Amino acid sequence: MKLKISLAFVALYLISLVLTAPASMITRFIPADAGIQVGYVSGSIWNGKLSQVDYRNQFQLQRVTWQFDWLALLTLKLKADIKFNNGRKILNGTGAVAYGFSGLTLSDVNVDMKATEIIPYLKLPVPVTPSGKFTLVIENATQDLPYCSELDGYLVWHEARVKSPMGNIDFATPSVDLSCSEGNLVASLKQHSEQLTTNANILLLEGGAYQLQGNIIGREKLDPSILQALSWLGPKDESGATALNFKGRL
Could you write out the DSSP letters of every residue in 213-225? Predict the structure, then answer.
């Protein structure tokens, strides 16, 4: 009888250690060469907060919180609801991350980002200044080789405008539907404004190879210098559209 009571106390003690494990334990599992730096950590490993997460001094998330979904354990999955906020008008997002026998999955992801936040990542021959806001929504996504086995999402650029030395472009509200095809990432772009109309399908293959096919139509309200630059892409068809057909590697 005493042995059973002792074992019960030991079991309760171990369970309490697991339930109250500090969130700072997570940092011990980050490889030293991963290029990831974290700020102040608080809370427990199951319900915690990070003041910030920095990746190679190139990308930063602030005020990161997570909370584990205990009910997901009934389906043999580890699942956490995650939020971050770099400022309401700069970058913020929510979503759920789960890991189980089918691999890593995302669901109910919603990210809003100010368009100017992408400037550091653009490698263009001409400097540009975008304006507006990006909204990324991922209903469901499942990781697989080379990229995914399932992806249902979209990206919208609200009030999309670009300023450049060649002139300004009003894109209106471009949208990109995101999906998977045989493990490859598929993005279908639709854009229409008084200045420009674009339709394109982009396929991202294993190893970063990509294929882009579609067409673009420049209209009279487009800046003349940009309209002339479109002619470099190739001849127009009867509808005034220029075919787009590119292949390369990211």
Answer: EEEEEE-TTS-HH
